[in-house]
Amino acid sequence: MRFTPEELAAARDRVVPDVVASGLRVLFCGINPGLMTAATGHHFARPGNRFWPVLHAAGFTPRQLRPDEQGELLDHGLGITNVVARPTARADELSAEEYREGGRLLAERVARLRPQWLAVAGVTAYRVAFDDKHAVIGPQERTLGTTRIWALPNPSGLNAHWTPATMAEEYGRLRTAAFTES
After folding, report:
1. Record keywords: DNA repair included (predicted)?
2. Quick one: which of 9, 77, 99, 181 could link to 128 by a disulfide (CB 3.0–4.6 Å)?
Protein backbone atom coordinates (compact mmCIF):
# COMPACT_ATOMS: atom_id res chain seq x y z
CA MET A 1 0.00 0.00 0.00
CA ARG A 2 1.40 3.37 -0.99
CA PHE A 3 0.59 6.70 0.57
CA THR A 4 1.23 10.20 -0.68
CA PRO A 5 3.33 12.52 1.46
CA GLU A 6 0.11 14.39 2.27
CA GLU A 7 -1.63 11.20 3.43
CA LEU A 8 1.33 10.32 5.65
CA ALA A 9 1.42 13.85 7.09
CA ALA A 10 -2.31 13.59 7.88
CA ALA A 11 -1.59 10.37 9.84
CA ARG A 12 0.26 12.38 12.52
CA ASP A 13 -3.08 12.94 14.24
CA ARG A 14 -4.20 9.30 14.30
CA VAL A 15 -4.23 6.99 17.27
CA VAL A 16 -3.10 3.43 16.62
CA PRO A 17 -5.06 1.04 18.84
CA ASP A 18 -3.13 -1.36 21.06
CA VAL A 19 -3.45 -5.08 20.45
CA VAL A 20 -3.83 -6.24 24.06
CA ALA A 21 -5.60 -8.54 26.47
CA SER A 22 -5.13 -9.38 30.12
CA GLY A 23 -2.53 -11.96 31.11
CA LEU A 24 -0.47 -12.07 27.90
CA ARG A 25 2.81 -13.96 27.87
CA VAL A 26 4.56 -11.06 26.12
CA LEU A 27 3.43 -7.51 25.52
CA PHE A 28 5.71 -6.10 22.81
CA CYS A 29 6.21 -2.37 23.07
CA GLY A 30 7.38 -0.24 20.17
CA ILE A 31 8.85 3.22 20.62
CA ASN A 32 5.96 5.05 18.91
CA PRO A 33 3.94 4.58 15.75
CA GLY A 34 5.60 5.61 12.52
CA LEU A 35 3.54 7.47 9.96
CA MET A 36 2.97 4.32 7.89
CA THR A 37 1.70 2.55 11.00
CA ALA A 38 -0.59 5.48 11.75
CA ALA A 39 -1.83 5.61 8.15
CA THR A 40 -2.66 1.88 8.09
CA GLY A 41 -3.65 1.44 11.74
CA HIS A 42 -1.35 -1.60 11.91
CA HIS A 43 1.75 -1.82 14.09
CA PHE A 44 5.19 -2.12 12.49
CA ALA A 45 3.63 -1.52 9.05
CA ARG A 46 6.53 0.17 7.31
CA PRO A 47 8.11 -1.99 4.63
CA GLY A 48 11.64 -2.72 5.79
CA ASN A 49 10.66 -2.96 9.46
CA ARG A 50 11.86 -6.35 10.61
CA PHE A 51 9.44 -6.96 13.49
CA TRP A 52 7.14 -9.44 11.72
CA PRO A 53 9.89 -11.54 10.07
CA VAL A 54 11.95 -11.59 13.29
CA LEU A 55 8.93 -12.52 15.40
CA HIS A 56 8.38 -15.56 13.18
CA ALA A 57 12.09 -16.45 12.94
CA ALA A 58 12.28 -16.39 16.75
CA GLY A 59 9.45 -18.91 16.98
CA PHE A 60 6.72 -16.66 18.39
CA THR A 61 4.38 -17.27 15.44
CA PRO A 62 3.94 -20.39 13.26
CA ARG A 63 4.18 -18.25 10.11
CA GLN A 64 5.16 -14.70 9.30
CA LEU A 65 2.17 -12.48 9.97
CA ARG A 66 1.44 -9.34 8.01
CA PRO A 67 0.80 -6.11 9.90
CA ASP A 68 -2.91 -6.32 9.02
CA GLU A 69 -3.00 -9.71 10.79
CA GLN A 70 -1.78 -8.21 14.08
CA GLY A 71 -4.94 -9.35 15.90
CA GLU A 72 -3.76 -12.97 15.52
CA LEU A 73 -1.00 -12.23 18.03
CA LEU A 74 -3.56 -12.54 20.81
CA ASP A 75 -4.08 -16.21 19.84
CA HIS A 76 -0.40 -16.76 20.68
CA GLY A 77 -0.44 -14.91 24.03
CA LEU A 78 1.18 -11.83 22.50
CA GLY A 79 0.22 -8.18 22.16
CA ILE A 80 1.55 -4.82 21.00
CA THR A 81 1.56 -1.32 22.44
CA ASN A 82 3.93 1.68 22.30
CA VAL A 83 5.87 3.78 24.78
CA VAL A 84 4.57 6.98 23.16
CA ALA A 85 1.25 7.09 21.30
CA ARG A 86 2.07 10.10 19.07
CA PRO A 87 2.96 9.10 15.49
CA THR A 88 6.10 10.63 14.00
CA ALA A 89 8.23 10.14 10.92
CA ARG A 90 11.23 9.34 13.15
CA ALA A 91 11.63 8.51 16.83
CA ASP A 92 14.10 11.37 17.30
CA GLU A 93 11.13 13.75 16.95
CA LEU A 94 10.02 12.69 20.45
CA SER A 95 11.08 14.65 23.52
CA ALA A 96 12.50 13.16 26.69
CA GLU A 97 9.35 14.37 28.46
CA GLU A 98 7.19 12.38 26.03
CA TYR A 99 9.25 9.25 26.72
CA ARG A 100 8.99 9.72 30.50
CA GLU A 101 5.23 10.36 30.37
CA GLY A 102 4.90 7.39 28.01
CA GLY A 103 6.79 5.24 30.50
CA ARG A 104 4.43 6.32 33.28
CA LEU A 105 1.35 5.51 31.17
CA LEU A 106 2.91 2.23 30.05
CA ALA A 107 3.48 1.22 33.66
CA GLU A 108 -0.22 1.87 34.33
CA ARG A 109 -1.20 -0.22 31.29
CA VAL A 110 1.05 -3.07 32.44
CA ALA A 111 -0.43 -2.92 35.95
CA ARG A 112 -3.90 -3.28 34.44
CA LEU A 113 -3.06 -6.00 31.87
CA ARG A 114 -0.47 -7.95 33.91
CA PRO A 115 1.51 -9.56 31.08
CA GLN A 116 4.25 -11.99 32.07
CA TRP A 117 6.82 -9.97 30.10
CA LEU A 118 6.98 -6.43 28.75
CA ALA A 119 9.34 -6.46 25.76
CA VAL A 120 10.47 -2.95 24.82
CA ALA A 121 11.72 -2.94 21.23
CA GLY A 122 14.36 -0.26 21.59
CA VAL A 123 16.79 -0.13 24.50
CA THR A 124 17.27 3.64 24.15
CA ALA A 125 13.52 4.20 24.48
CA TYR A 126 13.50 1.95 27.56
CA ARG A 127 16.42 3.87 29.10
CA VAL A 128 14.69 7.23 28.75
CA ALA A 129 11.13 6.10 29.56
CA PHE A 130 12.20 4.33 32.75
CA ASP A 131 15.24 6.46 33.66
CA ASP A 132 17.62 3.52 33.47
CA LYS A 133 20.71 4.96 31.76
CA HIS A 134 22.71 1.74 31.99
CA ALA A 135 20.13 -0.73 30.62
CA VAL A 136 21.40 -3.16 27.99
CA ILE A 137 19.63 -5.53 25.63
CA GLY A 138 18.16 -8.49 27.52
CA PRO A 139 16.19 -9.07 30.73
CA GLN A 140 16.14 -6.15 33.14
CA GLU A 141 16.35 -6.21 36.92
CA ARG A 142 13.40 -3.81 37.19
CA THR A 143 9.89 -5.23 37.18
CA LEU A 144 6.50 -3.56 36.92
CA GLY A 145 4.64 -5.40 39.65
CA THR A 146 5.01 -9.07 38.66
CA THR A 147 5.74 -8.22 35.02
CA ARG A 148 9.34 -8.76 34.01
CA ILE A 149 10.95 -6.49 31.41
CA TRP A 150 13.14 -7.41 28.43
CA ALA A 151 14.84 -4.74 26.31
CA LEU A 152 14.98 -5.87 22.69
CA PRO A 153 16.78 -4.42 19.68
CA ASN A 154 14.66 -1.98 17.70
CA PRO A 155 13.43 -3.84 14.58
CA SER A 156 13.57 -0.72 12.40
CA GLY A 157 15.51 -1.15 9.20
CA LEU A 158 17.53 1.87 10.37
CA ASN A 159 19.03 -0.23 13.18
CA ALA A 160 21.95 -1.61 11.17
CA HIS A 161 23.78 -2.86 14.29
CA TRP A 162 21.46 -5.85 14.40
CA THR A 163 20.89 -8.24 11.50
CA PRO A 164 17.62 -10.14 11.18
CA ALA A 165 19.47 -13.28 12.33
CA THR A 166 21.00 -11.71 15.46
CA MET A 167 17.69 -10.03 16.24
CA ALA A 168 15.87 -13.36 15.93
CA GLU A 169 18.39 -14.89 18.37
CA GLU A 170 17.64 -12.21 20.98
CA TYR A 171 13.89 -12.37 20.45
CA GLY A 172 14.25 -16.17 20.70
CA ARG A 173 15.87 -15.82 24.11
CA LEU A 174 12.77 -13.92 25.25
CA ARG A 175 10.49 -16.56 23.72
CA THR A 176 12.30 -19.28 25.65
CA ALA A 177 11.97 -17.32 28.89
CA ALA A 178 8.30 -16.50 28.30
CA PHE A 179 7.16 -19.96 27.21
CA THR A 180 9.39 -22.39 29.12
CA GLU A 181 10.29 -20.70 32.40
CA SER A 182 7.75 -20.57 35.22
Report:
1. yes
2. 99
Pairing assessment for the beta strands 138-144 and 147-152 based on DSSP bridges: antiparallel
Among the listed residues 42, 43, 49, 82, the single catalytic one is 43
Nearest of 176, 180, 90 to residue 138 by alpha carbon: 176
DSSP per position, 80-106:
EEES--S-BSSGGGS-HHHHHHHHHHH
* Mean of pLDDT values over 40-55: 93
Q: Is the pLDDT of residue 33 over 70?
A: yes
User: For this structure, is 56 an active site residue?
Assistant: no
Cβ atoms of residues 76 and 60 within 8 Å:
yes
- Closest residue by Cα to residue 32 from 118, 120, 117: 120
Task: Give the predicted TM-score (pTM) of the model.
Answer: 0.94
Name the residue among 104, 182, 115, 113 with its Cα closest to residue 150. Answer: 115
First to last CA, the chain: 42
Domains and CATH numbers, the chain: 5-180 (3.40.470.10)
